[in-house]
Amino acid sequence: MLFWIFVFLLTKQSGLTQGHPDLLSRAATEASCDCTINSCRTLFDIVWGCLATIFACTWVALHQNVPDPNLGWFSLLMRKLRMMLVTIIAPEVIVGFAARQFVSARWISKEFDVSTTHGFFCNMGGFVSEEGHPVSKMKQFPAYMPAIRKIKRADIEDKSKGDTLSKGVAIAQGLWFVTQCLARVSQHLPLTELEVATLAFAVLSVAIRLLWLHKPLDVQQPIVVARSEVEINPLQEEDITPMNNGSLTLLEKLDGAIDGEYKKYSPISSTSVPSFYSIEIDVEDANGLVTFAGVFGVGSIFGSIHCAAWNALFPSMAEMWIWRISSVFIAAYPALTILLMIALNGWAQNNDIPGAVLLSLLVLGIVIYPIFRLFLIILSFTTLRSLPPSAFVDVNWSNYIPHL
């Protein structure tokens, strides 16, 4: 409820569209450049502040799984760039990924009496056997958990490139940007479209960082653990017997990124876990519920924040309507997708024509979604060419902090 009130207040900001010529002329005269240098900001200040925040919300916030130890620096760079691109185009995928790993890590921590950091390290492929294969399946734990328990949490955290303090500072950075936006709304100062888009990333970044607070950052080399001598049951044979999985198709990679399930993945034939991998825990429908919450909730929040620029000043009517349509679609897409999937698996499952129609709509949404996301990204920058003078007025912090 508080979030929707927050979006409503942003929507009521004093920005105006080109469709209101009388109000446009008023916006052009208010808060003009007669302000002092201490109360003004430049276009460079706006762009630099937003880009720095977006970089912190995408590149810096990413806690990747442990990569293949044989990868070179260029392959590692491209690996992170691909994940950064996914964060920009479909941030709800990253939030769902972080939520799955958080739930799995907490469950492993309670089930096997280890720390949450140990649970995250298992999820990210941080523990490997003496043969170099990840210990990343629940059925492997009876043989390797005695050795994993002997690893101190401090030894795992020592491999991390960031501690709790640095992660706390990063969270504070995102909260500071949100605070600045709220202050501008409070003082009836307009937010640019770029700031609104950055605000959406900042809000999601705080959620991602909190979910990954105890996950080690940018670990490059795993920890080798020895296998204990335990009796092997038939269910464990698939995890100790080499098998040839074959290469994953693009559709299988997308499916794995969304729900974390890689049906062809086997640790014994790999040297690392997939990029969006999380251990499937022994709780019925746990992964499905987390995915549902991540896709529906986060996707709707992300799109709704963009709707806050509904009444912003746009250089043209076409740009205004492209922004509005794209924002509404991004906000409504998760709910529409879930409804289509329910209908497809329900009454349309045994009906060929309705099933084909629903499946076509589902595929069409998947194709259109990144296009609308690109529209919002492009418009965030193109609309900077025509900003109202009040957009360059800085927040007067003395209203909140006396004698500043």
From TrEMBL:
Residues 1-19 form the signal peptide. Keywords: Membrane, Signal, Transmembrane, Transmembrane helix. It comes from the Eukaryota. The chain crosses the membrane at residues 289-314, 320-344, 356-381. PANTHER family: TRANSCRIPTION FACTOR DOMAIN-CONTAINING PROTEIN (PTHR35043). This is Transmembrane protein. The lineage of its organism: Eukaryota, Fungi, Dikarya, Basidiomycota, Agaricomycotina.
